[in-house]
């Protein structure tokens, strides 16, 4: 039996059809994986294995429909099934218990499609309903069950989380209906609990100074991250997961995968923002990092920040973004420029205007954030801001 160690697509293409019969080519790095070449030129991947002591062989797919890399993936999946006690050559029944359907939904509709909130969705469902529903048939979970689960979250005072759970489960069950797994969605026409209070908290100048000073006391990594949130109007995840490779020529370049609206977003860095970044150590690919990962402990740090800032009224990190937007408006920055700074595609940039107005406001955004940075520093230092922003010092990419 001929062997080819390290089989590649180039090697597979070169294999000639035998004069008669068929030839099996093995790769010792993938035991049991065979590329069978027939006299007619047909090439097919098979997997040879033992199951409960009996020899088995299953067909994977034709080559080149299934390339070498895909054949290796199929081999790993089949091998793992054998190790787990399942016969990969027999059709596997689709999972119909809630946990199985949940995992398939996550793979196909959430994580598999690159949704930025997929991790939050997984965490919330695993915490709130999976312990009770995991082994139950999803078809048995009815309206009363979902009401009990959502009400339990709302009853402990977490109304917003209860509303989010309602949204996640509604999408999951609707997807299951579309896949033919269940007949009806138990959340159909079921209203969300409570109401979601529209936040309009904007920090005053004095409060903003206190938060800035508290951020200085926090130190790296959360301290400078908080400052950059103030100076850019960026979202928490955009700044908290910022990579050095996303900073080019004194500008942050975010791809659609990193923004809430899935649109690329450019954030000019004011001289003040650049000075903040200039003092940040380069530890790994992330600008603000906890060892090997980006920032992920905002709740804990926010409590510490509250103690340091000691504001009279409650506030959340997202209020900094609203404060920046309000500050730009007070500096008489045009509304469409403010929305561009924030990366909004609604408001003045929605509808027909959004389709035909493709101006990126790059210069206007840079000027606006320069003015805002000067304003913030003036407040912190207790003086009036200069009329003209300082010359921009560009960071090296």
In short:
This protein is an alpha+beta fold. The chain has helices at residues 9-14, 68-83, 98-110, 118-128, 130-133, 143-155, 159-178, 205-218, 222-232, 236-240, 271-278, 298-309, 318-330, 335-342, 351-356, 362-381, and strands spanning 22-26, 33-38, 43-51, 54-63, 247-248, 251-254, 265-268, 289-290, 293-294. The protein is built from 16 helices and 9 strands.
Q: How would you sum up this structure, described in words?
A:
It is extended and about 90 Å long. The two termini are 55 Å apart. β5 (247-248) and β6 form a beta hairpin. α9 packs antiparallel against α11 (271-278) and α14 crosses α16. The model is unreliable at 347-358 and 388-397 (pLDDT under 50). The chain is built from 16 helices and nine strands. The chain folds into three domains: 9-83, Double Stranded RNA Binding Domain (2-Layer Sandwich); 98-178; 205-381, Orthogonal Bundle (hpI Integrase, Chain A), CATH 1.10.443. With 397 residues, it is of the alpha+beta class.
């Amino acid at each position: 039996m001929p062997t080819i160690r390290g089989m590649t697509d180039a090697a597979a293409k070169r294999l000639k059809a035998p004069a008669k019969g068929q030839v099996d080519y093995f790769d010792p790095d993938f035991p049991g994986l065979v590329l069978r070449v027939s006299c007619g030129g047909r090439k097919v991947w098979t997997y040879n294995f033992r199951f409960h002591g009996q020899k088995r062989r299953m067909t994977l797919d034709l080559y080149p429909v299934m390339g070498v890399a895909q054949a290796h993936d199929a081999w790993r999946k089949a091998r793992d099934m054998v190790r787990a006690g399942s016969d990969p050559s027999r059709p596997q029944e689709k999972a119909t218990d809630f946990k199985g359907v949940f995992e398939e939904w996550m793979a196909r509709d959430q994580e598999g499609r690159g949704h930025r909130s997929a991790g939050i969705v997984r965490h919330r469902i695993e915490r709130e309903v999976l312990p009770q529903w995991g082994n139950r048939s999803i078809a048995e979970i009815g309206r009363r069950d979902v009401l009990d689960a959502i009400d339990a979250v709302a009853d402990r005072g977490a109304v917003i989380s209860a509303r989010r759970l309602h949204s996640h489960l509604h999408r999951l069950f609707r997807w299951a209906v579309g896949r033919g797994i269940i007949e009806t969605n138990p959340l159909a026409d079921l209203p969300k609990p409570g109401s979601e209070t529209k936040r309009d908290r904007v920090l005053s100048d004095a409060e903003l100074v206190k938060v800035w000073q508290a951020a200085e006391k926090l130190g790296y990594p959360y301290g400078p991250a908080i400052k950059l949130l103030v100076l850019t109007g960026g979202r928490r995840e955009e700044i908290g997961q910022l990579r050095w490779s996303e900073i080019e020529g004194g500008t942050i370049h975010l791809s659609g995968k990193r923004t809430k609206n899935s649109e690329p977003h450019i954030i000019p860095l004011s001289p003040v923002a650049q000075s903040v970044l200039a003092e940040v150590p380069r530890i790994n690919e992330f600008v603000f990092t906890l060892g090997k990962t980006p920032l992920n402990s905002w709740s804990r740090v926010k409590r510490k920040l509250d103690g340091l800032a000691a504001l009279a009224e409650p506030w959340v990190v997202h209020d900094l973004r609203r404060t920046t937007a309000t500050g730009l408006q007070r500096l008489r920055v045009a509304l469409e420029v403010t929305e561009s700074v924030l990366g909004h595609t609604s408001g003045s940039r929605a509808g027909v205007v959004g389709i035909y107005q493709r101006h990126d406001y790059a210069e206007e955004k840079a000027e606006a954030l320069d003015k805002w940075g000067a304003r913030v520093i003036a407040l912190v230092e207790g003086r009036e801001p200069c009329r003209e922003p300082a010359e921009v010092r560009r960071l090296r990419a």
